[in-house]
């Protein structure tokens, strides 16, 4: 009977030790046996459709950041390094598709964190799904005011891009160096950033002593701009400012050329940024301006541009930088958290305060859950974009004026 009692006590002690050991392992993070085989992150991006030009840069930026981490062995979780698996789905440039893709990443693929799409309609569609499901989400290519127009109380979503409050003033600062009649024609679509920027240009114009003599507002995908162009001509506008997607911008510019409307200066936001704009128009795109937020001034920046152009055979875009950095910020946060818990990752993202190839990223300086990139002015010259106005640093070329 005594031996039987001692045996029972020993069994109970062993069970207690096992239980305590398991609890301690749980408290200290993943143990060797329980660490995941991979860290799944994902994004819905426009690989096809009207915004596919942006999607091609995003794909490279995200994949490059993940490859760097995996080449270094992965991210330390518990006591071993774990590789990152990046899943990308094509949202076909459609918000409803972005919504379903992100939902799929969360529920079926079990992504622990997410990256954004391109432009506010697509970014916000995915961001809302991430917010509802409490999955950390980092994005670029969404102007800050448009991002905040969806909600100001984001908890699981962060945005790295320019602030329209500053960006929409830059054209007027550029124009102050030039000789025009100060009459402006606006062309803005009905997407969130088109509405927001159109409103701001109307507010800022009189402050800088410019007059908006005509403002055309229209749905995305409009194909006939003839009447709008004639009205801008009749109003005597020597300056054109637009906010449109790339295919629509190309259509507008071609029809302006056909109708013989050649302003002295043109700022074609968003649509004129990808190289596809210049490739579609050739020399007629010479001198067109578009706001910039990154240029490869630094050695690290030059290396990023060279890597992209060598690997893809295509001309770079500044979008390789903000998407690459969005992924780096997310991956760095997971590494600092040392955990795949959503709250731990979210806390680490929010505490980001670090220099990256695109500049210093800090989500606590300005508007909540945003990190603003300073803006300057780019101009298409001989198939490349040159910095022709920059309050924050150097320029790379003299401005072409008037439009040739």
Description:
This protein is 44% helix and 21% strand. The protein is built from 14 helices and 17 strands. It has helices at residues 2-27, 52-71, 95-107, 120-133, 144-150, 164-167, 170-175, 192-207, 226-234, 246-258, 275-281, 299-312, 319-337, 342-350; strands spanning 39-45, 75-77, 80-82, 84-90, 113-115, 137-139, 157-161, 183-189, 211-218, 239-244, 265-270, 289-292, 353-356, 359-362, 370-372, 376-381, 384-389. Helix 3 packs parallel to helix 4 (120-133) and helix 10 runs parallel beside helix 11 (275-281). The longest helix has 26 residues, at 2-27. The chain is elongated and about 70 Å long. Mean pLDDT is 93; it is low at 15-33.
